[in-house]
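Ticket reopened. Same input as before:
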Amino acid sequence: MKATIATLPGDGIGVEVVAEGVKVLQAVAEKYGHQFAFEHHLIGACAIDATGASLPDETLAACKQANAVLFGAVGDPKYDAPTAPVRPEHGLMALRKELGLYANLRPVHVYPALMGISPLRPELLEGVNLVVVRELTGGIYFGPRREATDKDLTAHDTMVYSADEVRRIAHLAFQLARQRGRASGGSKVTSVDKANILASSRLWRRIVTEVAAEHPDVTFETLLVDAATMHLLRRPRDFDVILTTNLFGDILSDEASMLAGSMGLLPSASLGAGDLGLYEPIHGSGYDISGKGIANPLATILSAAMLLRHSLKLEKEAAAIEQAVETALEQGYRTADIAGPTTTAVSTQQMGDAVIAALAEEIRCTY
Ligand code: IPM
Ligand code: MG
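Engineering reply: fixed in the latest deploy. New output:
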């Protein structure tokens, strides 16, 4: 098939990891006879430096035209000042909003080869297989906000949800739970909120409970977010689909990444009504390690697999990438973030090469 993939490396290690994602997609295209055209565009701090805007019009237009978007990271300490008029992160938020990508899927897969890397004991991790479904275009990220000024040191952010916003993400979560068809324990949706305090959470819980009634085959439970952070560490195996708001999903997915062992392992897909999706690692621009060639590209490579699955409907190719990542890890390839004290770490590029080599091997085996 022919597809146009807009690539937005962004800032810091985003540039290094997206290069590996593209490399792997190119290898898939060659092996399976597809034609992928990659178009690079600016977003984040590099876009502010070049154009003054964190999401230039040209970038947004190109993303709308593309079949899918592969994204790296945004953020640069030089725009961190509390009074900065324009911030790199705004570019990403605007892109999600403009493309209508209300559902963010963040799957957590625990690799047997990495059991020792997670701060959690291996016996807690066996069989962990969950996905965080994070609402992405509403909530406190997009509600009315007031910045403090030097004259008036008060500020506020507002968590707003409408019933429709909650309903569409809830339906998606229940459908996903059914598709995942978890073998042991059955499909389950755990909705996470703060309904004992927040009005927006009480609406969230009410609507999600209504949607749950339409999906009687899927087990449904609710958890308060503070308790959820604890249960995620105490009994991670019990979770299947975690459905939650924009802010809680942001926080819970970073926590969940430590089940796998590193933020550098978690991919994500941001989806809307059509096939166009945005695929990105959950980690940030990692300024402290950028330019050194040591970042872990696996989260981006796994995001590229999600891109093939969700936007291009290339399930076989997506699964091949996931298998190749598993193989590279089993073969002992480790970037610095997942290398134990006695293991020599490989570079970002070497990890990308290892995945491509495993992919080539796999394809040979299938013939
Ligand atoms: C994420 C990131 C972003 C978010 C930032 C960079 C805006 O932390 O994708 O999890 O908070 O959504
Ligand atoms: Mg985050």
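The chain has two domains: 1-98+263-367, 119-146+156-260. The chain has a mean pLDDT of 96. Please confirm and we'll close it.
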